[in-house]
Structure prediction request, 521 residues.
Amino acid sequence: MATEVEQHVNTEIESGIAWIRLNRPEKMNAIGALTRQQLSEALKQAERDDGVRVVVLTGTGRAFSSGADVTEMAQGAGMRTPEDVGRVLRSDYMPMLVRLRTMPKPAIAAMNGPAIGIGASFALACDIRIGTPDSYLLEAFVNIGLAPDGGVSWLLPRLAGSGVAYEMFFTGKPLAAAEAHRLGVINRIVPADRLEEEVRNLANQLAAQPRQAMAGAKRAVNHALNSTFEEAMEFESYLQEAQAASPEFAEGVQSFLARRASKK
Amino acid sequence: MGYDHILVAVEPPIATITLNRPKVLNALSPDLIRELTTALAELDADETIRAAVLTGGPKVFAAGADIGDMADQGPVDQLLRDQTGRWAPLAGFKKPLIAAVNGYALGGGCEIALMCDLIVAGDSARFGQPEINLGIIPGAGGTQRWPRTAGKYVAMEVMLTGAPVTAQRAYELGIVNKVVPAEATILVATRLAREIAAKPPLAVRMAKEAVLKAFEAPLSEGLASERKSFYFLFATEDQKEGMRAFLEKRKGVFKGR
Prediction:
């Protein structure tokens, strides 16, 4: 009998929400070759599946993710040379992180614990982050003589400002949940034992929202991040025009008017 | 007349041509090209039409020529069939032709887009010349029109790597006029066509000719030709109407005379 393939990533779909869980608690959800392959597949499926309206990315156990599996790297599994490092970033991580940022549905990071290195990249590439008091973000690259990767040179300056980003990159010190929350990098901090419930509540709420309108918001933001104010406004105006012609808008106006009428 | 591979919607003063082989991502078969050139010739002759939109619909512009159709051909087959020479009339359309591009505009699809006068791209648009991967090169103007618009280095990258560029990059490179949400691409292109269709047609035609001349002729010749067109337009009724309307602070009504 063939040995069962380890499940580094578990996906459960529950009332329109895909819970994608990094599932190597004994390794603090370190991301190795198999994890990358399974996570990539899970994200692809979650994007394609029309039944999935919201994606939640989280970790099993104490950590969100401790980042790249350094033991595996040291053993040379798929990362033998510096070239391998670059290739894995370009062909494995880049498509996944781009997918999170551009998939036409909300992606929420449920930060059940530390998000380190590439783990932090996955948290930061999500649209919304909910953290626990003990969670933190850490760009530890400098501690082992590396420069930032996984998109954080782009993401962190935009989310936290370049001063905070540089301090993290230069010192290799963590950005604690409370500070990340104060900076707006983490949307909300909730007690650890309530994280899943709080994330479920938010995800349920988003799953009930008009999906094309939310997808439009992601497209508008992604376009705006690459354009001038005028270009962004013009893009918005066309998006809105299409949205104003959609059944979602017709339904939205109807229920708005109905609610107002029922108030009388 | 009826077409099998394209749809033509004539709504004066504009017309919209939609490449319509969705099952094969609008692959540009010789039959499709024949229909397209025929339709453009008809629109060119139709005085009620003042601008046209060319699109592949909401999902894809055109993913290239029919490879299945070419795989086993020899050079003489290609020459006798005039595979890409038959496309040339597309660039000879005298009225403004606006490409509305969603999704892939690859190979011949990209070359057709580059034959248009303006390009409106949906955010899903991707432009590229992947011919190199098949052991050939673009054959309908790609190697010539890319460098003339985006410059040598971009053109080399596109031809030699075969990797497509995104709508946003295409916009930054100046080969696309606007990036809009994909569901609005055709609408925006149509509006642009209507806006241009309201301008004096003879001036529009001379302006198009003059700009295209910049890619063909030395500067002195282009300038001389521009001057002649400029003087010529003073012989038109539309120039009289245009200037009178301007002085009377009203909107001109143009007849193309």
